[in-house]
Design goal:
Elements: E1 6-11, E2 14-19, H1 30-45, E3 51-56, E4 61-63, H2 68-73, H3 76-94, E5 100-104, E6 107-109, H4 111-118, E7 121-125, E8 129-131, H5 145-153, H6 155-164, E9 168-169, H7 170-175, E10 181-183, H8 188-200, H9 204-217, H10 222-237, H11 240-250
Parallel strand pairs: 2-3, 3-5, 4-6, 5-7, 6-8, 7-10
Antiparallel strand pairs: 1-2, 8-9
Helix pairs in contact: 1-3, 3-4, 4-5, 5-6, 9-10
Length: 260
């Protein structure tokens, strides 16, 4: 699964994806989009993967934004084509059957912020910085930034970040709900591994259904969201893990989940 601009490894049911372009602060380009599509496809087909961790190489950036050289070449046709391709990629990441943890080890700007927003959880180093700065280049976010940011931090804060394009630090990102946790840089991967271990200890299908209920419900009316939640709850009731979880609780023992 590995190549020079995207390092991929699966270890102990955790898939690690590392954007490996530190010389340009891990900027997103068309080649990287294609490699991420291949990696996500492989993860979708791997039933053993329980968690995905995405980060950037080096200690400067998670992803600094789009490749400016490619941006300079975009006209109305390429602009539409490239944004739709990236939106579809981020949709796949957001809706993976397993949780995805963004390990944000530096700048998450533009396309990098959009990638982080598509992830289930975001853990940031104390030195991380965030911005939706596209307006300063005469464009707007095109990989879902205007939509996911408002759904994550609220419309008021999203308006400030997108229209002004200013950078915020990790503590401000935590305060507004953009990230789940801020930790020292030297403990960043250790914290992500801890979250991964917690997820792996839980019943796989329950985690999958809960994630789907939250993601789908965010884009539905209350009545539709409740109906979908009820459907997923019923599915969970049919699993071996539900029977095991209830039995273990009643018998006052640790459950042994099997992912079915």
């Amino acid at each position: 699964m590995s190549n020079e601009i995207l390092l991929c490894e699966v270890k102990d049911q955790v898939a690690y994806l590392t954007v490996n372009r530190p010389e340009v602060r891990n900027a997103m380009n068309n080649t990287l989009v294609g490699e991420l599509e291949k990696a996500i496809g492989a993860i979708e087909s791997d039933k053993d993967v329980r968690v995905v961790i995405i980060t950037g190489a080096g200690d400067k950036a998670f992803m600094s934004g789009a490749d400016i050289k490619e941006l300079a070449e975009r006209d109305i046709v390429l602009g539409r084509e490239h944004t739709r391709q990236r939106q579809e990629l981020y949709d796949r990441i957001e809706n993976l059957n397993v949780p995805v943890i963004a390990v944000i080890n530096g700048y998450a700007i533009g396309a990098g912020l959009e990638l982080a927003l598509a992830c289930t959880f975001r853990i940031a180093s104390e030195s991380a910085r965030f911005a939706a700065s596209e307006v300063k280049l005469g464009i707007i976010p095109g990989g879902g930034g205007t939509q996911r940011l408002a759904r994550t931090v609220g419309r008021t804060k999203a308006m400030e970040m997108v229209l002004l394009g200013d950078m915020i630090d990790a503590q401000e990102a935590y305060r507004v709900g953009l990230v789940n946790k801020v930790v020292p840089a030297d403990g960043l991967m250790e914290e992500a591994a801890l979250w991964a271990q917690k997820i792996k200890a839980l019943p796989k299908l329950a985690v999958q259904y809960a994630k789907e209920a939250l993601n789908r419900g965010a884009n539905l009316g209350l009545d539709q969201g409740l109906a979908h939640e009820s459907y997923l709850f019923a599915l969970a009731c049919s699993t071996e893990d539900k029977r095991e979880g209830v039995a273990a609780f009643l018998e006052k023992r640790q459950p042994k989940f099997v992912g079915r």
